[in-house]
Write a structure and sequence with these properties.
Elements: E1 8-10, H1 15-29, E2 34-38, E3 46-53, H2 58-61, E4 64-70, E5 75-81, E6 97-98, H3 109-113, E7 128-133, H4 151-160, E8 166-181, E9 187-198, E10 202-203, E11 207-212, H5 217-228, E12 233-235, H6 240-247, H7 269-293, H8 297-317, H9 326-330, H10 334-362, H11 364-369, H12 380-402, H13 404-435, H14 446-466, H15 474-493, H16 500-539, H17 545-577, H18 579-591
Antiparallel strand pairs: 1-11, 1-12, 2-8, 3-4, 3-8, 4-5, 5-7, 6-11, 8-9, 9-10, 9-11
């Protein structure tokens, strides 16, 4: 297999222009080589290639590209580095590619044309893992367990879980290969012209690659430089799948569950709040189809997190949306905000049962391996019961997400927020026109709102945390955990306004405190759920004695973890809210906001 970059791409907006560029390349190469078409089984045959990644682009973010190329008998999975993606050409070529990946100044073109192999730039290193696979269906999702045993699964399986691989885009490519011969009639390089098409959508610009023949690297580099001089030829700076996604209106890495609303410190507070809430709504809507299809558990998880963030945002600064005089223009009242908050609470409650069962099932193997008195197999009836319950709860969840109530909630919420955002921008534009000064905004800004509400959230955390003693009830820690979440969300909502270093220090301390409180609360919830499930299993006659004993051992382990978290709380809280912690927060809010 020959890995490497497609070195060049034909510029232009239509097939006729691309054909002219290709003809120009062949004519230019004829000035230095004898150009002969190569006839082989690969030439002229369309090869279909589908690129896979998770919904949140885990492979792309790890600098990896995974694709499947169909063949006459089965197909091949290919895993390559993003920095050196493979060409979608036939795998039969023995050559290695030479590519020019950066533009060259016209002042150097003559010297480069005459450069000797010793002074020519080296071809980039490229690596690719190729594995034959049978039964792989390019049109459907695949879990990590579908990957064949071997190097690809070893590289990516843990990175993917618990997500599934989704087909992102499929391209059919016809490849024409031309041999480049020297004066002695020996093949010294090849030109590979690939014409990709997204079936039923659009053709993509042809890609041209010069590949080396063993023993003649200098000739291949010379050919690559000749190609680089042809009008309409550009260096290929992106992999083919990125070009294909662009045609579909997408880009690699275009989904993230982060709250990355485009806000500035001088933006009107109302506009900033609407932008944050719209970004959260985008994430909710993006995850609804995958949740309904039950593709993997992370769709529901991301949906729940964005719903929870929305509820916290309404609690933290929902009043900004109903302040006069903007409220009259926006048509949103305090009752409206309260109604939306109640509806998002309904969504949270709707998603909770399925997510709780997902957590049990995701942790099941690890939990089973911690057993000492019992054996992992003793828990299998419990696993079967969890799956049965999960099926029932998921059906109720899917019905809720398809319901007119849920659909209307998202539509009405988007309409309200869009109206607020548009009115705020119009008001700001009018103020600027009257004052003659750009960027000047009347009223509260995002910067002042961020400092005020974040400081208030921090004060609540500090007040509640300092009042907790070893004798405090569990509910006090649970309440503190909720206040910590609100503070965390406030920091995340306004992250673009803060100095990254100051923000990182505060968030790092808060995360450690949240991890402690989360371990305490989650273990308590799991203990209660396991006890309730044991009671239900017993009543249904589905609880063998050994299974109940094993479940008892699991709850004992959870209780031990909870005690450790409780003992660690004081240290974690002190590190976050002591004098140094307060100073770090003060620095963030006073000097960290742009």
């Amino acid at each position: 297999m020959t890995p490497g970059l497609a070195g060049f791409v034909a510029a232009g907006d239509d097939a006729a222009t691309w054909d002219d560029v290709t003809v120009g390349v062949l004519a230019a190469l004829e000035q230095g080589f004898t150009v002969v078409p190569e006839h082989s089984g690969a030439a002229g045959a369309a090869r279909r290639r589908t690129w896979f990644d998770t919904f949140d682009w885990r492979l792309y973010r790890a600098d990896l590209i995974l694709s499947y190329e169909s063949g006459h008998r089965g197909g091949e999975l290919r895993l390559s580095n993003l920095s050196t993606p493979s060409s979608p050409s036939s795998p039969s070529s023995p050559a290695s590619p030479t590519s020019l990946t950066r533009p060259i100044s016209r002042a150097r073109l003559t010297s480069l044309r005459n450069a000797t192999p010793a002074t020519a730039p080296a071809a980039p290193a490229a690596t690719e893992i190729v594995q034959p696979v049978t039964g792989w269906q390019a049109s459907r999702p695949h879990g990590p367990q579908d990957l064949p045993d071997g190097a690809i699964a070893a590289r990516v399986a843990r990175l993917l879980a618990p997500r599934v691989l989704l087909p992102m885009v499929t391209v059919a490519t016809v490849t024409a290969v031309t041999k480049l011969l020297n004066e002695d009639g020996k093949i010294v390089a090849r030109l590979r012209v690939e014409r990709p098409v997204i079936t039923g959508v659009a053709a993509l610009p042809p890609r041209l690659t010069i590949t080396e023949v063993r023993g003649y690297p200098g000739q291949a580099r010379r050919a690559a430089r000749i190609v680089s001089l042809v009008a309409g030829v550009l260096p290929a700076t992106e992999p083919l799948f990125a070009d294909a996604l662009r045609v579909l209106g997408r880009r690699p890495g275009d989904y993230s569950n982060k709250v990355d609303a485009k806000i500035t410190a001088g933006m009107p507070a109302t506009e900033a709040v609407a932008a944050i809430l719209l970004r959260l709504l985008d994430t909710i809507e993006a995850n609804v189809p995958g949740t309904i299809r039950d593709l993997d558990t992370e769709f529901l998880h991301d949906l729940r997190v964005s719903v929870r963030r929305t509820r916290s945002a309404l609690k933290l600064f929902g009043d900004v949306l109903t302040r006069p005089p903007a409220a009259k223009k926006n048509g949103l009242t305090e009752d409206d905000v309260a109604r939306f908050a109640a509806e998002f609470k309904w969504v949270g409650d709707l998603t909770t049962p399925t997510r709780d069962l997902d957590v049990h099932l995701l942790d099941f193997e690890e939990t089973a391996q911690t057993l000492r008195a019992a054996k992992p197999d003793d828990l299998e009836p419990f696993r079967a019961y969890l799956k049965q319950r999960r099926t029932k709860e998921y059906r109720a969840l899917a019905r809720g997400l398809r319901s007119p109530r849920f659909v209307s909630l998202l539509q009405n919420w988007r309409a309200a927020l869009t109206k607020i955002q548009d009115n705020s921008k119009s008001a700001k534009a009018g103020t600027t026109a009257r004052s003659g000064q750009s960027g000047r905004t009347a009223g509260e800004t995002a910067g002042t709102l961020a400092a005020e509400r974040t400081r208030r959230a921090f004060a609540k955390v500090a007040k509640r945390g300092v009042a907790i003693t070893p004798a405090s009830p569990h509910d006090s820690l649970h309440d503190l955990r909720k206040r910590c979440k609100e503070l965390r969300y406030a920091l995340e909502f306004f992250a673009p306004l803060y100095d990254p270093v100051a923000y990182g220090k505060v968030l790092s301390d808060l995360k450690r405190l949240q991890d402690c409180l989360g371990e305490f609360q989650d273990t308590e919830v799991q203990i209660g759920e396991i006890r309730g499930l044991a009671t239900s299993m017993l009543a249904a006659g589905e609880a063998p004695a050994v299974t109940l004993l094993a479940m008892g051992e699991v709850t004992a382990g959870l209780a031990a973890r909870q005690q450790l978290a409780r003992a660690d709380f004081e240290r974690r809280f002190a590190a976050f809210a002591d004098v140094d912690g307060q100073r770090r927060m003060s620095v963030l809010l006073r000097g960290g906001a742009a």
